Amino acid sequence: MDLGLSGRVALVCASTGGLGLASARALAAEGAAVAVTGRRGELAESIAAEIAAAGGRAIGAAADLTAPDAPDALVDRVVRDLGPVDVLVLNGPGPTPGSAADFTARDAAAAVDLLLAPHLALVRRVLPGMRERGWGRIVAVGSSGVEEPLAGMVASNAGRAALAGYLKTLAGEVAADGVTVNMALPGRIATDRLTYLDRQTAERTGRTEDAVRDAARSAIPAGRYGSPAEFGALVAFLSGAPAAYITGTAVRCDGGQGHAL
User: Fold this and answer.
1) Is 259 within the bounds of a domain?
2) What is the pLDDT of residue 197?
3) Which domain holds residue 207?
4) Counting beta carbons within 10 angstroms of the beta carbon of residue 145, is it exposed (0 to 12), middle (13 to 18) or buried (19 or more)?
C-alpha cells in the first residue's frame, strides 16, 4: 500500500527512543522527510544521519518541549530546514507512576504541563498551514489508559485523558479542511519505558521482573509484548493518504489486551 507520504514533512516529538523513534523510522521508510527531536540533541542528529544514510531526508533537533518557547523554536527550525509540517506526531515522556489517593492539584498541573500544554502549542502553530493547504495529519501517541485507566498511573491517566478530549474536539472542527486528528494507543510495547514500569511493579509487589513480565504476557491474547516497529506502522498508516476518512478516533495497538471493543 502506498501511504502517499513521499515528500511530506513529519515532525515527530520525543523521537530519540521508544515509540517516537519507531514512528520516525516508519514515516521515513514511507518517504516522508522527518524531524527527529528530543532533549538529547546529539542523539537526534545521529538518528537523522542514519535515516539520511539509508536514502531518506531527515534532521535532528534538540528540544525540551516543556520550555515556554521551545515549540515555536522547533517548528521554526523544521520549516526552515525541511518545509511546512504536514504530519505532526505528538509524543512525550511518561509521568511517574502514582496512586489517585496521593494525587494533588500540583501533581495535576504537572501532568498538564507535561502531557497537554506542549502539544497544544505545537498544534496551534502548525494547524493554520495544514488547513490552508487542505492536508494535514495530527497523530498523538497516547496510552491504553485513555480507554481503560491503568492502576497506579493516575498522572498519565489524567493528563492523557485531557489531551484526548482536546483532540476529539479539534477533529470535528478541522475535518472539512482535510486535516485528520487521531490517537494511537500502545498497550505493552517492548520499550525502555515498559522495562522501567515492569521494574517498578516488581519492586512494589516483591516479585521478580521475570514474574511480572510473565504475568503481563499471560493477560495479552497475543501472548507477547508488541514491538516498537508494529506501533510505528500504525502511526505511519494514520499519517498517510489512505487514512483520510479516519479522524477523531483512538486506535489501540495492544495485542487484544483491552477489554473495550
Assistant:
1) no
2) 86
3) 191-225
4) buried
Say if residue 146 is in the same domain as residue 165.
yes
**Rounded Cα distance, 224 and 130, in Å:** 38
Give the whole-angstrom CA distance, residue 57 versus residue 24.
11
Domain-located, residue 114 = yes
Q: How many structural domains does the chain have?
A: 2
Radius of gyration of the chain (CA): 18
- Is the per-residue pLDDT at 260 higher than 90? no
Scan for cell 488547513, then name that residue.
131
Measured distance CA(223)–CA(207) in Å, rounded: 20
Give the β-pairing of 58-62 and 136-141: unpaired
The pLDDT assigned to 186 comes to 95
Question: What are 115-166's pLDDT values in tens digits?
Answer: 999 999 999 999 999 999 999 999 999 988 888 898 889 999 999 999 999 9
Closest by Cα among 44, 42, 40, 43 to 11: 44
Domain identity same for 166 and 237: yes
Which residue type sits at 46? Answer: S
Looking at residue 145, its pLDDT comes to 86
